[in-house]
Amino acid sequence: DAGITQSPRHKVTETGTPVTLRCHQTENHRYMYWYRQDPGHGLRLIHYSYGVKDTDKGEVSDGYSVSRSKTEDFLLTLESATSSQTSVYFCAISEAGGFNTGELFFGEGSRLTVL
Amino acid sequence: TQLLEQSPQFLSIQEGENLTVYCNSSSVFSSLQWYRQEPGEGPVLLVTVVTGGEVKKLKRLTFQFGDARKDSSLHITAAQPGDTGLYLCSSSNTGKLIFGQGTTLQVKP
To answer: Out of B40, B42, B102, whose CB is closest to A106?
Structure first.
């Protein structure tokens, strides 16, 4: 199994508070991704990174920011959480560009509830 | 915009039965992946198919890629409770990776 650790695994917070989710990998893969999974919407890409300090937006990036200061860490930040951001968040990694190969390795997910 | 449609959305069967789930698109796939996601965990890659007409087997799971590369199927023989989960297909095309909404499979003992 790919070495991907997400933290926290569960978090309950209040509307308007900042939240940071962390993804840590031990595989030295170049590409890292943040997805959210919601009933009826499937997996949707929030942001992705193709190298240290190189990031780009996905299809549902509004309200989220990311940072990657080291190969192994990819942070997802909700500056001011809203109830619509209640979801399960998955980090994924790929050695080659996942958009070309489609072969991603996922973490176990972080369940976020915004009250 | 390419969409991946999976069917059925839900499937509940008894242990030992066979089943097939489908992934279809109006566009041609460059490649297609199948993932299985168990409750409370992330998706796990099962297989990638690339060539039209390709068939791959993984124990009791058989994956088929349509000749025109616009559809794929996953057939499970003699399903077991351990096969329970969400089955997702994904495809990469013109630089975008998209996922279907999945088929939720429940195999009852």
So the answer is: B42
**For the domain with range A4-114, which CATH number is right: 3.40.50.970, 2.60.40.10, 3.90.930.12, 2.40.50.140?**
2.60.40.10
- The reported pLDDT for the residue numbered B37 is 96
A103–B33 C-beta distance less than 8 A: yes
Output B81 or A100, whichever has higher pLDDT: B81
Distance (Å) from the alpha carbon of A81 to chain B's nearest alpha carbon: 23
Q: What's the rounded Cα separation, in Å, for the pair A73 and B31?
A: 29
Please give the average pLDDT of every successive group of 10 residues along chain B, which has 109 residues.
86 97 89 93 93 94 94 97 95 78 96
CA gap B31, A57 in Å, rounded: 23
Size of interface A-B (CB pairs under 8 A): 51
pLDDT at A99 over 70: no
Query: Is A78:A19 a contact under the CB 8 Å cutoff?
Result: yes
- The domain locations on chain A are 4-114
Confidence at residue A29, expressed as pLDDT on a 0 to 100 scale: 92
CATH of domain B1-47+78-109: 2.60.40.10
- How far apart, in whole angstroms, are the C-alpha atoms of residue A41 and residue A108? 19
Contacts of B43 in chain A (CB under 8 A): 43, 90, 104, 106
List the domain boundaries for chain B: 1-47+78-109
The tens digit of pLDDT for each residue in A68-96 reads 999 999 999 999 999 999 999 999 999 87
> Where does residue A98 fall: left (phi above 0), alpha (psi -120 to 50 degrees), or beta otherwise?
alpha
